[in-house]
Structures are given as structure tokens and as C-alpha cells.
């Protein structure tokens, strides 16, 4: 984590190379020395850690007296998951033997059963259930798949091993038909049993990566994320084997796109401004969301997000921030509060004079998504976001992070981000 | 009917006039270029605007002009139409002998356009050899051998194909003495009123005659007889294009033994059957859809018998739509020229009577108010012929600005839902069909009616949307892409919401628009533009109405299918479900037996039975199957009581009458007669 000689060399090399093309990089002359920028980052860190220390314990659902009953899941031990499945199966057996067939009572994950709680700043699941009887044409498939998944999870409990969602799907391809079906039922099962999906010992394939000033233990092995090469360390699919987090970073930089992540990792951005860089390469998976939350909670670092300037960028931001509708039953564990929107914001397009040819016109669908987002509570609570999003819908223009490459491939890491940090330009 | 006819009319006397033109300015040599054209000449030179673009299209247009004339003729005397159309291919030597030309062998081969030079020949042979090699290779590999396109005989410009087109009907026929002028002179339409008509230009067979004159030089032959006549008029004539007068070869009366009435027209033209075969057959088929009360017999005859085609489109109903009525113009649809013409031709004396009687939707009181509005120099009693040009412009302006009631659709003759439905069923044999007939609406002073039919399934229907367009009860086959019907069906109908799969289902969309003036687009008058909101909305509404009807039928069908398949579908999942449950039970039983886990009493009881194999997978399967059986029975009962005895509405069927000459063999029994038709 300490500055290696190699990194020093690189740092020295950077200003030299950039001074020659100083004229070409707009706004470069506005940059103050790195020490000034670091100063502003220190103050951000201080305010973040102080605010998190004052509110001693995060609010939970039970602290609030909500009008409608809500449902949340908890981490359960393998043994309690096993018992839950067994009692469910026994009740099914009773029902079948008495000639009544069987049916599951599954919490509904439909949009109408979701609730955004402003106090918690995340989506939670209401208590509506749907009945899934076997002897019905429309639900026979799903109830059979549910029974099958239950029996598979039971085996995992007995043997206490982890499998991936893909493994689960391949145990009976003929029944499941495609993986989305077994995946959906898996979420139903964790809802039904009242446990998190990781308690079911089913994990998703690795998707997210992390690089920068972070040391943690993965299944007992110590990992230094500054020494993981250019690609960084893959985020472990099961969070329970991650521990002992340490860091001297000033902030966490959340990146939407792989391309921007690679640029920052290769330029060793985290050595110039001590930070941890994370990406889930698009829509975040459960592991990355759990990992981000764990970092935020244990290291008490501010989180800055770098996403595309389009409705989907903001949507991804919202998934990290207050959870997805699909997994709202576990939003308590999956969401990271207080993420700051650093860029690329619609107002940056003009502010940084991004050329017309790099901006894209929004499609009908984009504009519709944008307008829908304006109605969402998690956007409305932040007036700055509303302003930015309204601007996007009004100008009907979007831009990807890569649009900055029009000024040179390293413009992102050498001018845009430092300038943003210097100006404390986050919302 | 419209403007093109008028231009023809205005100059129809031209052949007599040129002298006058020359005498006026004899010294200017350029004046000879300003020679006036006869209407026949005009159409000969601009034959593409009447649908005579190329030989293939000429054959097609000739067919349709003749067929449409025949239908009009039969309908005008309320006779169920019977149209017999024959196209006979004429080989080159036969054609030459017809025109009295001796076949000549080529002597100087190199003189001809299709002469193959040595180099070209080498190239062709090499190509053929390669193709053969490929084919042999493919055959050896067991691949499906693709049919090699038959080496196209090089067709030079001289190799034209000729056809004799004959169309015979049972219509009104023509008065003996009028025949030469009806065919041999392109005349102005003297029709005074406004009427829904089939023809697009009103040229009919005249254009076919001009084309035959241009391509073969052979005369047209007409046989005709009217209902009361005891003779057949026969006439052979061609047209003097420059003078626009008929040139009669033979005009005589022949005996009429069969008491036939109608017309038979025979014309020899250049054409192209190969490229327009499918268009002509489609035309006949769609004509049969929209005219199910007519009987068509189509024949194609050629020397090579495998190319021959004979199709009979049988009559399916004897209900004929009424003959469209002539109506007066709507004040908002007339232009300056038309007002002048109406004034010139009217029998009315003064302005008030003129307004009241020459237009629809102007009553006496209304006419008086209009005249008051025109200005002080107008009065109800002023003689109509005394109006100045300026005054006529004033009337025209007022017509454009004033508000009038919309014209009614009474003068229109739509195909009728019944006929449209029958036509669709007859020609496509769909699984389901729904039809809708809209009420009359108005576009620029002309009433129009939109009727639509939507079918699902059927024979010879391709997957996806099959669009059939009709305007004034004739099919439109060309320029489908830009048409209002195509655009609407493709873009503005959400088929999925009616449980119809736009890609996989075989959907037939039939839209028939009738109007006193169809707002065609394009030179060939082959499509109706998408930019007329009134028509686009009416088309969309009509198609949607059909879809709504279909949806309930489709839903019913799906429900019925679900009923039938419910038990099978549920039973399919029993082994998987019970297997999953039993797997967990077995594991639990083992844990229980090894005392590694404790269970409550009732549960322990079950687990013991599992261990003792008193409860097995089969037990569960059996119990679950019983439950499924019970549920299925209950639901079937519920479905039966709910759906009850609601049957489809019954439809009349039409049985064709037999010809009286048929001989029967009767088998008599005390209660019935069994009649064999020999």
C-alpha cells in the first residue's frame, strides 16, 4: 500500500508527459497542485466519519412504526435454514397425504408490493403473499420448481457446501428450462424462508472487481489490492469469507463501466489520490453490493460514483443506493447509504465542453425511463439529482464516460476526476 | 373518371381544327410543333399513367380493365356476373401467320442483337462447366441439389410474346350501332353527376385497343347481344389514333341461338405472362374475395401444356350489393372548372334553383342565405347563365368557407360485411374471421365507407400479415408499402393485445374502401396515401373492431384448449414435485433414524413410515394424482356451467343451383328420394 518505487516513477513521469500536451487538454490549467485537492478529500473524509459516528446505530425497519407491515430477511445459520425447509416439506407431506394437494405461500415481489422508506433511504417489501397451488395450470410449473429448489437447498445444508446459481440450474435443465426461472424461484425461496440469499449457500459467479488501497482477507488469505496487477481482485461471491478490512484510502470510487475502471487502474489513479476503485461492470450483482456496503460500514469512507450520463447510469446508482425491486426483501444488507454522484452529470456536458459528436441523442425509451425516474422517491429526495435529471430529459442528450476520451484517453484520470475532486463537485 | 377525361374531352374535336391554327399564323414555322394531340394520341404517348408501363403490366391492366367492365355491365342489369377470361399464348410463327408475314430464317447471324460472339460463347461454356462441376460435387456429398435455373434463352428485343385475351360476360351488352364509337374513340366523359365507379380512368377497353394497335397492329373483335335482341352484333375494328376515330373492318349481325346476352371482347396484345403470372392470378383471387356473388373462369392456354392454368372461382352467394347511385356534388368538393361546367350544363334557370338542385345538402332556405352572403350584386332570381367569371369565383370562395352538412353515404355501394366475410372464407378457408363495416365518413366533400375483415389461419396464407386492399371493390396489388392500410396494420395495431402473434399467426387483413372519389396517390393510382387522417383513423378503427371480435373468439379457444390439456399438463409435473418432496423426506428419515435430529411427534410418525417404506414416492404420487383428478373434474364442471350452450351465430349457406339439363337417377323410398346427379 505504501508508495512503491515504481509508482513514484510513474508519478514523476506523469506531469512531464502531460506538460507537453497541456495545451490540448482543456481545463488542465485550472488544476491546483495535488496537495490542495488532497486537502479537500481529507475534509470530506472527516465529515463522513464524523456523521457516521454521531448516528451511533443505523436505523432499522423495526425502529420505525410504519403504517403497513413490511418484511425483511436476516442471515440465518445453515441449521436453521435446514429446519425451515424440513418443516415446510413436512407440512407439504401432510397436505398431500390428506388428499389436499399442496401449495406454497410466497411473498409477492411485484412492483405493487414494494415501498420506498425515506427514513431508511431504501426500498422494502410489503407483506402481500401470493398462493402458488400445484393443481392449477398457471402455477403448476412454478410450484414444482419451488419444491425442487427447496430439496436442492436442503442437500446443500446437509453437506454445507456452496454452489453457484448456474450449478443449481444444471441439476435439472429439463425442468427449469432456462436459468432466469431457477434464479427467480431462488429469490422466492429466500423470501419464503426469511433468510438472505447467501444463507442458502447459493452464490453468483464473480462479476465485480476491486483495486486500490485496500487490504482484506479472503478465506484466510490476505489480499493487498494495490498488488493485484492491472485487473484488480475479483470480489468474492460469498461475503462471509471476507474480513479484516484495512485501508488508508480517502474515498471509494464506484465506477459503472469496465472501460473507465481499466483506465483508472492502469494509470494507478489510487496512488495519486488514495482511494479504492470498485466496478460491477454494469448492473451490480449481489456480491459487489454486499462488498461495497461492508467497506462503507467498516472503513467509514465516503463513496463517490462515476456513471454514464444517461437514465441507466442513475438507475445503477439507485440500485447501489437503495436497492433493486427484485431483491428488496434483503435491502437492509444490500444497500450502501449516502453515495455521492460525482459524474458524469448532465450539467458536465456543457461545463466540460464535451463535443457534440460524443453526445448521443436519447431514444424515446431513454426519455421515458428518465421521466419515470423523476417520479421515483429516491431521486426526489435529492434536489440536486432532480435538477440534473430534468436537464437530461430537457436537452435529450446523453453521454457515456468514454465521451471524455475525445480529449485524449487519459483525460479522465488526469484532468476530469482531479478537477471534480478539487471543486468538490459531487451531489 | 376525373380530370384526365376532361382533357381528353376538351380536345376531342381537334382533328377538325388544325387548319384554323395554321391559317392564323402561316409564317411561323415553329407553330407546327404546337400541333394539337388527339386524346387517343395523348394516351398512346403517356400509356404509363393508365397502367400500361411495360408489356407485362400491359397484359395485367388489359385483363383488369376487361374484367371490371364485365362486372359493371352485369351489375348494371342486376344479373349475377359470370365472367370468363382466357389468355392464349401465341407463338412467334403463329403470330406472323396471323398478320400474314412469312417466317424468315436468319442469314446474317451477326446482324442480330442476341448474336453470341466467340468470346461470349467461351465464357458461357466455362460457366456452365463450373456449374455442372459444383452440382456433381454437391450430389456426391449428398447435399440437396439446388435446381439450376434453366439457362435463359437469350432474349433479344425482337423476341416479344403475344397473347390473345378474351373476356366474355353475361352483362348488358351494347347497342349494335354504338359499338364502333364505344371502342374506337376516346371520348370525354359526359357523365354529369358523381358516382362510385370501378374504373380508375374510365378508359376501359379503349386503352387495351390502343396498346394492341401499338404492339401488334391487330384489330379488336367484339361480340355483343342485349337482352331483348335476337341477334349477336359482331364487330372487328381498330382505332385511328391520330384522328381518334374508329376504323371498322367488319360490322354485322349474326344469329343468336343460345339467347345469350352480354359481351365478348377479344384483343391480341404484346405481353409477358412469365413475370406477371402471379399478379394476374392474385388479382383474380382477390377479385373473387371482394365479389363472391360473381363466378369467374380463368384460363391460360399455351403450346406447352404444363404451363396451362384453369381456375374456377365459384359463386358463393346470390346477394349482390346495390348498384351505386349517381349523386350530386357536395359544395365543398367542387372546383372552379366544375362549377363552370355545371352552370353550362344545368337545365335550371336561376341562381336559387341552381344551388338548390345541383348540389347536395343545400336546401331552399340555406340557398337563400348563401346568396345573401355572396353580396349585393347577387339575387336569387338572377339568370344562372349570366354570372360573370368574377361572380363564379365568389361562389367558389363561399363554398370553400361556408359550413355544409356532410354528404351521406347513401350513394355508395360497399361490398357489405356479409359479402366480404363470404369472400374471405371462400378463398382463404381461415380458422377464424371477423368483419366490420364502418359508417360513412367524409373527406373533402366526398363520402367514403371503410369495411374491414381480419382472418386468422387458412390455406395458402403465409405467416405474418397478409394485406389485401380494395378500393371501390377492385383489388390494389401494386405499391403496397406506402398504402394507408399497410401502414396501419403494420405500425398502429397492437396485435399482441388481441392475442394475435404478428410474426407467427397467419393473419389476413382485408380493407375495402369505397368512395365517390378515392384519393389515390402515385402515377399508377395504385395506393391510397397514409397522410389523410380521416381515412387512416377509419381504417384503424375498422381493423380494431375486427380484432376485438377475434380476441373473444381466440380467448374462448384458448380456454377450451386449456380445459382439454389441464389434466395432462398438471400430471406431467407430478413426478418432479413428489420426487423433490420425497428426497427431503428420505434425508430427514435417515437423520431421524440415526437420532442425529429430533422431530415432533406427528412428524416423527411420518418419518418412521418413510423409513419403513410405508410412505414412498409412489404413495405421494398417487395421492397427488388423485387430487389433480378431483380438481380437474371440479374445474371442468365449472367451465361447463359457465360457458353453457352459447353457440356461434348461425350463418346462411348458399347452395348453387344446378343447371336444368342435368339428368337424375331417382331412388324412391316411402320417406325420401335419393337423387343421383349424373
UniProtKB/TrEMBL annotation, chain A:
Query: Which Pfam families does the UniProt record give?
Result: TOP6A-Spo11_Toprim (PF21180), Topo_VI_alpha (PF20768), TP6A_N (PF04406)
User: Boundaries of each Spo11/DNA topoisomerase VI subunit A N-terminal domain copy?
Assistant: 141-202
- Give compartment(s): Nucleus
Q: Does the keyword Repressor apply?
A: no
Catalytic activity entry? ATP-dependent breakage, passage and rejoining of double-stranded DNA
Q: Please name the top-level EC class of this enzyme.
A: isomerase
Q: For this protein, what is the EC number?
A: 5.6.2.2
Q: Is Metal-binding given among the entry's keywords?
A: yes
InterPro entries referenced in this protein's UniProt entry, alphabetically = Spo11/TopoVI_A (IPR002815), Spo11/TopoVI_A_N (IPR013049), Spo11/TopoVI_A_sf (IPR036078), Topo_VI_alpha (IPR049333), TopoVI_A (IPR004085), TOPRIM_Topo6A/Spo11 (IPR034136), WH-like_DNA-bd_sf (IPR036388)
**Active site (catalytic residues):** 170 (o-(5'-phospho-dna)-tyrosine intermediate), 170 (nucleophile)
The prosthetic group or cofactor this protein requires is:
Mg(2+)
Topoisomerase 6 subunit A/Spo11 TOPRIM domain span: 251-421
Q: Where is this region: Disordered?
A: 1-28
Show where the Type II DNA topoisomerase VI subunit A all-beta domain sits.
206-242
Q: Which family does it belong to?
A: Belongs to the TOP6A family.
Please describe what this protein does: Component of the DNA topoisomerase VI involved in chromatin organization and progression of endoreduplication cycles. Relaxes both positive and negative superturns and exhibits a strong decatenase activity.
What this protein is called in its record is DNA topoisomerase 6 subunit A
Q: Which species does this protein come from?
A: Hevea brasiliensis (Para rubber tree)
The organism's lineage? Eukaryota, Viridiplantae, Streptophyta, Embryophyta, Tracheophyta
UniProtKB/TrEMBL annotation, chain B:
Which Pfam families does this UniProt record tie to the protein?
Answer: HATPase_c_3 (PF13589), Topo-VIb_trans (PF09239)
Q: Which InterPro entries match?
A: HATPase_C_sf (IPR036890), Ribosomal_Su5_D2-typ_SF (IPR020568), Ribosomal_uS13-like_H2TH (IPR010979), Ribsml_uS5_D2-typ_fold_subgr (IPR014721), TopoVI_B (IPR005734), TopoVI_B_transducer (IPR015320)
Q: Where is the DNA topoisomerase VI subunit B transducer domain?
A: 407-566
Say which enzyme class the record assigns. isomerase
> Its principal location?
nucleus
Which reaction(s) does the protein catalyse, per the Swiss-Prot or TrEMBL entry? ATP-dependent breakage, passage and rejoining of double-stranded DNA
Binding of ATP occurs at: 69, 169, 190-191, 199-206, 525
Q: Where is this region: Disordered?
A: 1-39
Question: What domain of life does the native source organism fall in?
Answer: Eukaryota
Supply the EC number(s).
Answer: 5.6.2.2
Which UniProt keywords are listed?
ATP-binding, DNA-binding, Isomerase, Nucleotide-binding, Nucleus, Topoisomerase
Question: Where does it live in the cell?
Answer: Nucleus
Q: What functional role does this protein have?
A: Component of the DNA topoisomerase VI involved in chromatin organization and progression of endoreduplication cycles. Relaxes both positive and negative superturns and exhibits a strong decatenase activity. The B subunit binds ATP.
* Self-association and partners: Homodimer. Heterotetramer of two TOP6A and two TOP6B subunits.
Assigned protein family: Belongs to the TOP6B family.
Give the matching PANTHER family.
DNA TOPOISOMERASE 6 SUBUNIT B
Q: What is this protein called?
A: DNA topoisomerase 6 subunit B
Amino acid at each position: 500500500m505504501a508508495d512503491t518505487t515504481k509508482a513514484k516513477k510513474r508519478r514523476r513521469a506523469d506531469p512531464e508527459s502531460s506538460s507537453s500536451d497541456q495545451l490540448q487538454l482543456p481545463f488542465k490549467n485550472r488544476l491546483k497542485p495535488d496537495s490542495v485537492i488532497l486537502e479537500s478529500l481529507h475534509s470530506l473524509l472527516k465529515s463522513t466519519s464524523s456523521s457516521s459516528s454521531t448516528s451511533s446505530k443505523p436505523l432499522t425497519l423495526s425502529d420505525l412504526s410504519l403504517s403497513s407491515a413490511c418484511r425483511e430477511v436476516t442471515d440465518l445459520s445453515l441449521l436453521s435454514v435446514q429446519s425451515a425447509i424440513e418443516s415446510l416439506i413436512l407440512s407439504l407431506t401432510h397436505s398431500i397425504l390428506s388428499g389436499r394437494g399442496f401449495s406454497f405461500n410466497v411473498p409477492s415481489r411485484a412492483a405493487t408490493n414494494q415501498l420506498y422508506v425515506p427514513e431508511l433511504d431504501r426500498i422494502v417489501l410489503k407483506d402481500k403473499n401470493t398462493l402458488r397451488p400445484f393443481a392449477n395450470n398457471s402455477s403448476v410449473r412454478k410450484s414444482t420448481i419451488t419444491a425442487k429448489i427447496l430439496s436442492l437447498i436442503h442437500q446443500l445444508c446437509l453437506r454445507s457446501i456452496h454452489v453457484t446459481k448456474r450449478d443449481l440450474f444444471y441439476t435439472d435443465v429439463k425442468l427449469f428450462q432456462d436459468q432466469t426461472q431457477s434464479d427467480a424461484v431462488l429469490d422466492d425461496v429466500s423470501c419464503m424462508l426469511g433468510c438472505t440469499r447467501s444463507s442458502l449457500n447459493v452464490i453468483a459467479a464473480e462479476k465485480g472487481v476491486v483495486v486500490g488501497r485496500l487490504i482484506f482477507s479472503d478465506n484466510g488469505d490476505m489480499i493487498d489490492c494495490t498488488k493485484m496487477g492491472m485487473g484488480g481482485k475479483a470480489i468474492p461471491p460469498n461475503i462471509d469469507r471476507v474480513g479484516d478490512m484495512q485501508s488508508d484510502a480517502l474515498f471509494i470510487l464506484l465506477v459503472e463501466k469496465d472501460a473507465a475502471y481499466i483506465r483508472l487502474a492502469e494509470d494507478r489513479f489510487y496512488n495519486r489520490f488514495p482511494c479504492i476503485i470498485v466496478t460491477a461492470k454494469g448492473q451490480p450483482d449481489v456480491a459487489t453490493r454486499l462488498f461495497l456496503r461492508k467497506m462503507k460500514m467498516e472503513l467509514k469512507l465516503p463513496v463517490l460514483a462515476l456513471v454514464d450520463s444517461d437514465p441507466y447510469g442513475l438507475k445503477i446508482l439507485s440500485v447501489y443506493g437503495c436497492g433493486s425491486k427484485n431483491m428488496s426483501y434483503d435491502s437492509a444488507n444490500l444497500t450502501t447509504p449516502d453515495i455521492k454522484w460525482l459524474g458524469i452529470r448532465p450539467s458536465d456536458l456543457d461545463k466540460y465542453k464535451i463535443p457534440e459528436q460524443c453526445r448521443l441523442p436519447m431514444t424515446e425509451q431513454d426519455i421515458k425511463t428518465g421521466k419515470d425516474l423523476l417520479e421515483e422517491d429516491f431521486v426526489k429526495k435529492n434536489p440536486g439529482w432532480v435538477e440534473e435529471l430534468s436537464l437530461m430529459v430537457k436537452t435529450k442528450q446523453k453521454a457515456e464516460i468514454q465521451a471524455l476520451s475525445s480529449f485524449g484517453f487519459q483525460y479522465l484520470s488526469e484532468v476530469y476526476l482531479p478537477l471534480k475532486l478539487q471543486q468538490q463537485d459531487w451531489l | 373518371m376525373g380530370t384526365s377525361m376532361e382533357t381528353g374531352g376538351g380536345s376531342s374535336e381537334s382533328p377538325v381544327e388544325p387548319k384554323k391554327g395554321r391559317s392564323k399564323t402561316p409564317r411561323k414555322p415553329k407553330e407546327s410543333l404546337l400541333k394539337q394531340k388527339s386524346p387517343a394520341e395523348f394516351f398512346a404517348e403517356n400509356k404509363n399513367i393508365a397502367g400500361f408501363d411495360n408489356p407485362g403490366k400491359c397484359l395485367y391492366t388489359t385483363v383488369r380493365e376487361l374484367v371490371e367492365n364485365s362486372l359493371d355491365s352485369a351489375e348494371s342489369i342486376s344479373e349475377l356476373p359470370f365472367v370468363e377470361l382466357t389468355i392464349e399464348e401465341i407463338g412467334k410463327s403463329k403470330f406472323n401467320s396471323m398478320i400474314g408475314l412469312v417466317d424468315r430464317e436468319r442469314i446474317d447471324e451477326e446482324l442480330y442483337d442476341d448474336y453470341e460472339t466467340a468470346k461470349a460463347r467461351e465464357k458461357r461454356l466455362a460457366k456452365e462447366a463450373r456449374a455442372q462441376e459444383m452440382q456433381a460435387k454437391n450430389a456426391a456429398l449428398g447435399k440437396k441439389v439446388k435446381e439450376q435455373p434453366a439457362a435463359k434463352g437469350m432474349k433479344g428485343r425482337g423476341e416479344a410474346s403475344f397473347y390473345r385475351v378474351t373476356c366474355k360476360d353475361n352483362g348488358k351488352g351494347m347497342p349494335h350501332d354504338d359499338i364502333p364509337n364505344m371502342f374506337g374513340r376516346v371520348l370525354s366523359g359526359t357523365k354529369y353527376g358523381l358516382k362510385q365507379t370501378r374504373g380508375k380512368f374510365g378508359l376501359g377497353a379503349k386503352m387495351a385497343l390502343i396498346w394492341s394497335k401499338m404492339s401488334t397492329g391487330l384489330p379488336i373483335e367484339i361480340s355483343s347481344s342485349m337482352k331483348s335482341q335476337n341477334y349477336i352484333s359482331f364487330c372487328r375494328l381498330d382505332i385511328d389514333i391520330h384522328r381518334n376515330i374508329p376504323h371498322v373492318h367488319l360490322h354485322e349481325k349474326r344469329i343468336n341461338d343460345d339467347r345469350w346476352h352480354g359481351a365478348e371482347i377479344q384483343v391480341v396484345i404484346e405481353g409477358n405472362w412469365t413475370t406477371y403470372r402471379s399478379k394476374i392470378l392474385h388479382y383474380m383471387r382477390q377479385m373473387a374475395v371482394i365479389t363472391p356473388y360473381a363466378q369467374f373462369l380463368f384460363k391460360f392456354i399455351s403450346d406447352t401444356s404444363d404451363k396451362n392454368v384453369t381456375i374456377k372461382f365459384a359463386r358463393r352467394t346470390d346477394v349482390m350489393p346495390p348498384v351505386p347511385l349517381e349523386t350530386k356534388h357536395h359544395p365543398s368538393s367542387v372546383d372552379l372548372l366544375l362549377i363552370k361546367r355545371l352552370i353550362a350544363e344545368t337545365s335550371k334557370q336561376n341562381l336559387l334553383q341552381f344551388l338548390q338542385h345541383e348540389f347536395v345538402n343545400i336546401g331552399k332556405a340555406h340557398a337563400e342565405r348563401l346568396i345573401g352572403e355572396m353580396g349585393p350584386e347577387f339575387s336569387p332570381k338572377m339568370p344562372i347563365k349570366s354570372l360573370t367569371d368574377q361572380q363564379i369565383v365568389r361562389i367558389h370562395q363561399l363554398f370553400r368557407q361556408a359550413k355544409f352538412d356532410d354528404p351521406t353515404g347513401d350513394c355508395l355501394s360497399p361490398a357489405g360485411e356479409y359479402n366480404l366475410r363470404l369472400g374471405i372464407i371462400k378463398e382463404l378457408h381461415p380458422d377464424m374471421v371477423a368483419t366490420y363495416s364502418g359508417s360513412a365518413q367524409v373527406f373533402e366533400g366526398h363520402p367514403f365507407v371503410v369495411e374491414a375483415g381480419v382472418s386468422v389461419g387458412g390455406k395458402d396464407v403465409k405467416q405474418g400479415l397478409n394485406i389485401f386492399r380494395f378500393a371501390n371493390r377492385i383489388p390494389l396489388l401494386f405499391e403496397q408499402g406506402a398504402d394507408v392500410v399497410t401502414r396501419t396494420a403494420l405500425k398502429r395495431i397492437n396485435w399482441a393485445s388481441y392475442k394475435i402473434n404478428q410474426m407467427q399467426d397467419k393473419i389476413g387483413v382485408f380493407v375495402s374502401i369505397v368512395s365517390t372519389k378515392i384519393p389515390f396517390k402515385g402515377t399508377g393510382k395504385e395506393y391510397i396515401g397514409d397522410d389523410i387522417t380521416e381515412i387512416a383513423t377509419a381504417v384503424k378503427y375498422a381493423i380494431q373492431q375486427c380484432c376485438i371480435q377475434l380476441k373473444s373468439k381466440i380467448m374462448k379457444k384458448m380456454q377450451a384448449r386449456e380445459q382439454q390439456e389441464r389434466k395432462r399438463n398438471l400430471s406431467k409435473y407430478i413426478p418432479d414435485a413428489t420426487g423433490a418432496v420425497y428426497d427431503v423426506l428420505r434425508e430427514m428419515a435417515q437423520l431421524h433414524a440415526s437420532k442425529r435430529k429430533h422431530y415432533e411427534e406427528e412428524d416423527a410418525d411420518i418419518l418412521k413410515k418413510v423409513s419403513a417404506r410405508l410412505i414412498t414416492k409412489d404413495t405421494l404420487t398417487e395421492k397427488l394424482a388423485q387430487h389433480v383428478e378431483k380438481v380437474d373434474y371440479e374445474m371442468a364442471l365449472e367451465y361447463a356451467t359457465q360457458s353453457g350452450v352459447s353457440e356461434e351465430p348461425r350463418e346462411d349457406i348458399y347452395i348453387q343451383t344446378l343447371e336444368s339439363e342435368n339428368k337424375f337417377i331417382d331412388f324412391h323410398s316411402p320417406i325420401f328420394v335419393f337423387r343421383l346427379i349424373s
